[in-house]
Amino acid sequence: MKRNQRYESRLEKRKQNRFLNIAIGLVVLLIVVVAFNLFSGDDNETASTNKSNSEETTENNESNNRSIEMETDDSKSKANDEDSESQDKEESSAEDKDKADEEATEEEKTESETPEGGGPEGPWQPIGTSQTEPHTKTYDDGSQDWNEMVQALSYATSIPQDQMTIFWLGNGGGPDLSKGTVQSKADGKKYDVMLQWIPEKGWQPTSVTPVQ
User: pTM higher than 0.70, yes or no?
Assistant: First the structure.
């Protein structure tokens, strides 16, 4: 009887131990699974975060590169515009200088061709010209024809151009005739002067009449 009780008691303990071992095994397995899921989730999150950061960094780099390219293009465009503007100014300045030199040369040429003598008493010769035939009269201030007529008025009256006031200069009654009214700034003397165009020789004073 006692043997049976001992046997049953041992059997019961073995069952309990086996149950405990199984329970412990299940608990350990559960812990392992939970730990695995936790670490796996952290790794996935870390990988996702790293991927997101990498993509964001790439996008930022591309954006910065585009900004740098745009700034470079703008700088190049601005530099080209400044170079073009500077070149235009230089060309305009050179053209103005050439035009001024040409006008000065024409005036010097006309003055050098002006014959000696003259004055209100005459006689007068054609003053010379740089114009070609056929000649067309023009009364545009600053034109070559105008400058040569002013030179002829100065020659006919002996009044220097910078001391001469021109009251009127226009048609003298014919296709080759002009008339001017001038006054000396120095002594106030005033004259009517008739001019005639001589082909290839320029304007020739034909009469000088004092005006009271």
Answer: no
